[in-house]
Amino acid sequence: MHLLSRVHYLMNVQFPASAVANGGIYHWTGDRDVPDIHNTMYDYGKFQVVVLANLVSNFDGGEIVRFMGDKGTVVLTEESATLLPYDEVWSYEYPIESWPKDLRAAFVAAHKSDPTADIGTYGKQPHRQKKVLQQTAEGTEDHMRNFFECVKSRKPPVESVDFGCGTAVACHMANISFHEKQRVTWDAEKGELTGDRVAVDVYWPGPEKNA
Hints:
Layout: H1 2-11, E1 18-24, E2 37-43, E3 48-54, E4 65-68, E5 72-76, E6 80-85, H2 93-96, H3 101-110, E7 131-134, H4 139-153, H5 161-180, E8 184-187, E9 192-194, E10 199-201
Antiparallel strand pairs: 1-2, 1-8, 2-3, 4-5, 5-6, 6-7, 8-9, 9-10
Helix pairs in contact: 1-5
């Protein structure tokens, strides 16, 4: 839930449109129904979110969120934020080798100024460098500071009840999708999760409060 909160806050969204989850109990067997592998694909309309949960491996990779766009990737960990700009090093040389000569020539001519086409312009492009921003304070301090400021001012916190409802709904969608073995969708107008075999009402004061 906390990892999805980062996505919702930075992308300015409240609810996913749909979710599909898969997983299973592969190692920690016994009298239980909580999966030790639980992977979810969320659809937000203009972008996708993949949440991977692995409780089987003993590799402690930590909690990591990656925002992957066409200009680069931002990696958020518990200690830092890293910007990884995309250098235009992708080469089309290999895939177009099998194209007919005329088609290959037309492609090169159409992309002669495109560094990604790898036809002699890549070396002339400016290159952005990786940037790492280290966290200087434990994040709980900011949470508590914002909470007490809101107690005094009576203003809503950064992550309000409505905001929390959105991430809670997303988590319910993942769990219901896994257990029902189906894709589930969120109807913000009705405050309802729906699927072929499920309909769950969720308290939601109204779409006018969407982030």
